[in-house]
Design goal:
The chain has 476 residues and is an all-alpha fold. It has a domain of 213 residues. The chain is 77% helix and 1% strand.
């Protein structure tokens, strides 16, 4: 490893060093505010280095990692999303009796695992990043141990994640046994020379799809999603819905493009079935929910189906649409779960439908931000979600994926119902009597400013998406 390789890995070193620094800080003295400041500064320094040095010095750390424009963009997105999650976590954990400081170690390590995923070019780095992410999530999901359903959610994710990792690892072993390579480009070269794919490789890839499908939470590997969303702390749920799934999406794009997977009709058929079933089952099950976390969980399943439409479209337009939709989905999801975290108290999260009845008359700005996030998820014009869906539909039409486009349009109409229903509940003049615990005003300033920035970003991208589109095109 030369000097350039070491410099290119500094973003990962900053994250690992921040986790170690927090660990030693806790051993000296527990102070939630100090740990919070260290975490925020670490993420900001990492993002600054990424945008000033890394994006001008692209590097391949052979054979494990490839730090290109696509990877730099996704690491930046992961860092900013993690920063937002940390900002909304401060007020959320300040009102709870559980020890708060270790949470920040886990969230940084989970972000590092996801960052490794998006720049992986080898099965070893893929599995390393995946396990760093997964092991951190085991603890994060069950972090509030005294809360009902928290331990249940953690154990469910632990068991199912272990099974999915076993499928993924066994699939990798079959591919390696046949091709003799664990590097993406080496596997692609072997397949090109073989002319047709052997049965062993087909089985291996199918087992890998099972593992990847679980991490994405697409149908039929979605069973864990509503229970884990419901049992996790609200900021952790936001992290799972964005950073965890986004890292796996970026990895899937890199792996599929390296193998030129679009030439294999069997794999495109599998992902088409996953996309259509995720859209319909996710939206139909969301219609029946009165728990907001479970509603957003099933909604996320449907949105992963929408993302797969752009993924299957392929080509440059499809990848552009996929990245743009990821950005819009991240902003919108963070806004929705950020409001949920803001309204939660130390007893439970504000996850019941009745908790939002008459919210407009009690906390108008909060209701407006939450409504904007929901309308963006529904794909209403002037929001980032609308432009994202339009981009995905355009990519699907460009590559003649008519069945997927029709399914997306139908499901957008279905999804509109439960988003509008929640907005209507907030506008109901019959106010809910449940009191909302108020913390010191200074504690809420960080969360309030963060929510305002997310809302402005949501409308800015929806009204003027040219800047984001140009940025995405510059890194591909």
């Amino acid at each position: 490893m030369n000097k350039s390789d070491l410099l290119s890995l500094i973003p990962l070193w900053i994250l690992s060093s921040a986790a170690i620094l927090i660990f030693f800080s806790i051993s000296v003295k527990r102070n939630h505010k100090v740990i919070f400041v260290i975490t925020v500064l670490s993420l900001l320094v990492d993002f600054f280095f990424l945008t000033t040095y890394s994006r001008h010095h692209l590097q391949s750390v052979e054979p494990l990692l490839i730090i290109d424009g696509f990877g730099i963009f996704n690491i930046g997105l992961i860092l900013l999303t993690t920063l937002v999650v940390v900002l909304i976590s401060y007020a959320y954990f300040e009102q709870r009796e559980e020890r708060k400081e270790e949470y920040y170690i886990l969230i940084i390590l989970a972000a590092m695992g996801s960052a490794i995923l998006v720049i992986s070019n080898h099965f070893v780095s893929l599995f390393l990043g995946l396990e760093i992410l997964s092991v951190s999530l085991y603890a994060l999901i069950a972090y509030l141990r005294k809360r009902e359903r928290s331990d249940e959610a953690g154990i469910k994710y632990l068991i199912l994640a272990a099974f999915s990792s076993a499928f993924l690892l066994f699939g990798m072993a079959l591919v390696y046994a046949t091709t003799g390579s664990m590097e993406f480009s080496g596997i692609a070269a072997w397949l090109t020379q073989a002319h047709e794919m052997p049965l062993m490789v087909v089985v291996g890839f199918c087992m890998m799809i099972v593992g990847i499908g679980f991490k994405l939470g697409v149908v039929p590997f979605h069973m864990w999603t509503p229970d884990v969303y419901e049992g996790s702390p609200a900021p952790v749920t936001a992290f799972i819905a964005t950073v965890s799934k986004g890292g796996m999406v970026a990895l899937l794009v890199r792996f599929f493009n390296a193998l030129n997977g679009y030439q294999y009709s069997s794999f495109t058929l599998i992902f088409t079935i996953l996309a259509i079933s995720s859209m319909f089952i996710g939206n139909v099950l969301a219609l029946r929910q009165t728990n907001i976390k479970r509603l957003l969980a099933y909604s996320s399943i449907a949105h992963l189906g929408y993302l797969l439409v752009a993924f299957l479209a392929g080509e440059k337009l499809g990848i552009e649409a996929m990245i743009f939709y990821l950005v819009a989905y991240f902003i919108t999801t963070l806004g929705a779960f950020g409001i949920l975290a803001t309204l939660s108290d130390k007893e439970r999260d504000a996850e019941r439908l009745e908790d939002y009845r008459g919210l407009l008359w009690r906390r108008p700005l909060t209701a407006i931000v939450f409504s904007a996030a929901l309308l963006s998820l529904a794909g209403i014009p002037l929001t980032a979600g609308f432009v994202g869906k339009f981009y995905v539909i355009a990519a699907g039409i460009h590559t003649h994926r008519w069945l997927l486009v029709v399914a997306l349009v139908i499901n957008s109409v279905i999804g509109l119902y439960y988003y509008i229903r929640l907005v209507a509940v907030m506008f109901d003049q019959q106010q809910e009597s449940r009191p909302v615990q108020e913390l010191r005003p200074l504690v809420y300033i960080v969360s309030s400013v963060t929510m305002a920035i997310l809302a402005l970003s949501l409308f800015w991208i929806g009204v003027s998406p040219e800047g984001m589109v140009a940025l995405i095109r510059s890194v591909l």
